Amino acid sequence: MDKFTAEARLVSERLGRFEFLAGLFYTDESNTYRANLFIADSTGTPLASPFDVLVRTTTSSDYKELAGYGNLTFYFTDNFDVTGGIRVARNEQKAQTGGPNSVVFYRPRAIANFEFEDTVTTWLGTVRWRPTPDISTFLRAASGFRPGGPQNNPAPPPGAQTTIRPDSVWNYEAGVRATVLEGTFNINASIYRIDWTDIQLQGLFNNIVLQANGGAARVDGAEMEVVARPVTGLTLAANAGYTNARITEVDAGVSANIGAVAGDPLPLTPEFTLALIGDYRLPLANGNELSFGSTLRFRSDMPSSYSNTVLNPNMKVPSATTLDLRAGINLSGFEVQARVENLFNALIINTLAALIHRRWPEGLAGVA
To answer: For the chain, which terminus, N or C, has the lower number of CB atoms within 10 Å?
Structure first.
């Protein structure tokens, strides 16, 4: 993969009641994917040519995006302000697959070229109110997108899309930040809702798996962080999160392929997360210091897939708890730190592949 990215920003100081930010963003990304599938007999010996190569193909793609954006803040008072923002992005995509020596299921694959271009506008709105110097509240709404693209199939069957639209999200959030007891405690809390539409998923069309804008989802959640500094040098923190993420709509072709139905939780999304953090800095002579810390993390169990998937069965990914330790020394501005992550070597399973690998020995042992 080759990627070039550049960005330029202009940020103003406060100009009376106004404040602004403006910028340009550019990215150019090129990728090459090679797929090779060889066939062998039961002894591992490759079949005779041309039956030894079932699939051999190369796909190249190029993605370019140029975007301009700007935010404008208006201060009604020093304690109440409103921000509006806009971002306009133009993207162009080209892809090529097949060509000389390309084979798909023993059949030559001719060169196929695909092109796609699109313009997407996203928005931002924020309202902030600071009732006291130690309390700040906010309301925010913001949109985002993932680029669409061409359907990388030269002859998609009836019912399949020829181009894939961008999927988009709207994020709505309300929160509060507070400082208590002259900085002894800092509290950040928020609730949010995310509406995700035109999700890019794989659907089944005339027994061919293709990309599609196949559904919608909703995520409701809450987050809270508490930081305490009870004595000099000691910092204690707790972060907790709750997420309720589920599919709300799904296309019939997508459901037939991935097994999703409305109401299914989004795979690999834990409902609860928690982190407990402690750090202590011990001053030494001449401005040097020792540091000690630990982090305890917890993640609740989560589904590995959708409910009705046959080839990718839904299983419960177990919850996970890990403990990390760290210690360091700062000498004349140079810091050296030693870390131990996952102190008790807890088994962490994150994907279905890991679950299947774990289940096979148990099944074979049962048969034996």
So the answer is: C
